[in-house]
Design goal:
By secondary structure, the protein is an alpha/beta fold. The protein has 2 domains: 2-242, Rossmann fold (3-Layer(aba) Sandwich), CATH 3.40.50.300; 261-333, Alpha-Beta Plaits (2-Layer Sandwich), CATH 3.30.70. Helix content is 35%, strand content 30%. The chain is built from 11 helices and 14 strands. It has helices at 44-51, 74-82, 99-109, 114-127, 143-155, 173-190, 201-207, 225-230, 235-242, 276-284, 314-326; strands at residues 2-12, 17-28, 33-37, 59-64, 67-68, 84-88, 161-165, 193-198, 210-215, 218-224, 261-268, 287-298, 301-311, 330-333. Helix 6 links the parallel strand 7 (161-165) and strand 8 (193-198). The two termini are 45 Å apart. Bound molecules: adenosine-5'-diphosphate and magnesium ion. Residues 44-45 line the site of magnesium ion (MG).
Length: 335
């Protein structure tokens, strides 16, 4: 759906050149939710602007739905832009227009008929849950409702892809969750490909299938959210993952109380609900205590992480670790 090949972007800032993106390669599949996470200034918005051709990369190509946006003619580019929906942190609504007119705006630009516009606006208003607010003005809406208008407007011309630039960063946690579940819903109902950029790992965890980590204009890590989240390798990725992990200080390293082997055990999918740990220690006869634990969800996949201390000699601990691994659990010895 989207192929980003070797793009770089250099800005001329008067006396010197600033490299905002360096040799970026990414490919986004049809129907997936792809996340790009990075700190402020990492190059996320620049990358997104290259995907909707608001920015021209200095080198490389961006191919969206089979067309190279870096080489196509201006009138063709205009047509493609209409098929790339975008939502923003600060919504960018027309303050003097009603919800109806905000949603209708891109269709008017595309010269759709009044009847087609009316039918589509009403359909989209139902999809985003604003059918009773069509006559309201943006100032009369909450942040979450404004973003719903933004989403409906972005979907007005049946885009190939929806680009989200920090779409939930101005919202409180509860509203963030409701907007994220709306995005999931739209992705599933319409099969719409979504590219989402954020600096918040919980946003990635809630909705994305795959994630790329961008740092100082470079992609430093990329993969399935489950893999990147459970086995981060780059320091920046580890930092993002720690935003949503429980702190384990005092447990793994310097808990004077613990004398046995301390393990971090990770469950995924159906394993999360099965008594795997109990079955294993019953078999190996090892006793243990739980030091910390949590169960959560990555998109729709449940997972759990617990930190346990095994009581007993090293040989029995090694047998228990092997038995846990043979049941498909991920086991990391912390001490
Ligand atoms: N038009 C521009 N001219 C000069 N520098 C720019 C321009 N746009 C972005 N930058 C610089 O590029 C870097 C990346 O910006 P941006 O993509 O907006 O980061 P992010 O969205 O990750 O916060 C920043 O250091 C920013 O100052
Ligand atoms: Mg940005």
């Amino acid at each position: 759906m989207i192929e980003i090949r070797n793009i770089s972007k250099t800005f001329d800032t008067g006396d010197r050149q600033f490299v905002a993106l360096r040799n970026i390669n990414l490919s986004v599949k049809q129907g997936e939710i792809f996340g790009i996470i990075g700190h402020s200034g990492a190059g996320k918005s620049t990358l997104l602007r290259c995907i909707n051709a608001l920015e021209t990369p200095t080198t490389g190509s961006v191919i969206v739905n089979g067309t190279d946006l870096t080489t196509c003619a201006p009138h063709e580019l205009q047509r493609h832009r209409q098929k790339i929906g975008m939502i923003f942190q600060h919504f960018h609504l027309l303050s003097s227009a009603t919800v109806y007119d905000n949603i209708a705006f891109p269709m008017k630009l595309a010269r759709a008929s009044k009847r087609a516009i009316d039918a589509k606006v009403k359909e989209l208003a139902v999809l985003v849950g604003l059918e009773s607010h069509l006559g309201h003005y943006p100032a009369q809406l909450s942040g979450g409702q404004k973003q719903r208008v933004g989403i409906a407007r972005a979907l007005a011309n049946d885009p190939y892809v929806l680009l989200c630039d920090e779409a939930t960063s101005a919202l409180d946690p509860q509203t963030t969750d409701s907007i994220l579940s709306l995005l999931l819903d739209i992705n599933e109902k319409l099969g719409l490909t979504i590219v989402l950029i954020t600096h918040e790992m919980h946003v990635i965890r809630a909705v994305c299938d795959r994630v790329a980590v961008i740092d100082g204009g470079d992609i430093v890590e990329c993969g399935n959210v489950v893999d990147v989240f459970l086995r981060p390798s780059h320091p920046t990725t580890k930092q993002f993952v720690s935003q949503i992990s429980e702190p384990d200080d005092g447990i793994a390293g310097n808990n004077a109380q613990s004398r046995g082997t301390v393990l971090r055990i990770t469950f995924q999918g159906d394993q999360t609900y099965e008594p795997v740990l109990f079955e294993t220690v019953k078999e190996t006869g090892m006793s243990f205590s739980i030091l910390q634990g949590s169960i959560s969800r990555m998109k729709r996949i449940p997972y759990g992480q617990i930190i346990v201390e095994l009581h007993g000699d090293q040989r029995s601990a090694a047998i228990t670790i092997d038995a846990l691994k043979s049941r498909g659990l991920e086991v990391e010895a912390l001490k």
